[in-house]
Design brief:
This protein is α+β, with helices and mostly antiparallel strands. The protein has a single domain, classed as Nuclear Transport Factor 2, Chain: A. The protein has 5 helices and 6 strands, in the order H-H-E-E-H-E-E-E-E-H-H. The protein has a 6-stranded mixed beta sheet with strand order 2-1-6-5-4-3. Strand 1 and strand 2 form a beta hairpin. The N and C termini lie far apart (41 Å).
Length: 138
């Protein structure tokens, strides 16, 4: 079961990183949420619908994808912890390199909760303006 949970979480991270909301959705339980820890403007909870909307927006904001380099993937029961580094070029040509630790809680083989730890200041500086552009175009 641990390997299946690891595989599902890696699939989700790759889908999210590539802006593939369809693939990401297959990994999420009904009522799933993420909680970006920290004090930046992008910190806080995101319900399932917003997770999928953000994933879809990443396709335009981060055309190269995050290109995750997985450092560790550890599973115990229904919990999977992943450390990875992103190495992307944003749509505006700016480099975006951030480090992540995500703690996934699964239920019935799907992701129920993700606690995200990353540099929220860097995300606010580089990602927030692109999100505002995407919102303005809607």
């Amino acid at each position: 079961m641990s390997q299946q949970n690891k595989d599902l979480v890696v699939k989700f991270i790759k889908a999210f990183s590539d802006g593939d909301a369809v693939a990401a959705e297959t990994c999420l339980a009904p009522g799933a949420q993420t909680l970006a820890k920290g004090f930046g403007k992008l910190s806080g909870p995101r319900p399932r619908e917003l997770i999928l909307a953000t994933t879809a927006a990443f396709k335009d904001m981060i055309p190269t994808g995050l290109q995750p380099h997985f450092v560790t993937v550890t599973a115990e029961g229904e919990r999977v912890v992943v450390e990875f580094e992103g190495n992307a070029t944003l749509a505006n040509g700016t480099d975006y390199r951030n480090q992540y630790c995500m703690v996934f809680t699964l239920e019935n083989g799907l992701i129920k909760l993700v606690n995200e730890y990353y540099c929220t200041l860097l995300a606010d500086e580089r990602i927030l303006p692109l999100l505002a552009d995407v919102e303005a175009q809607r």
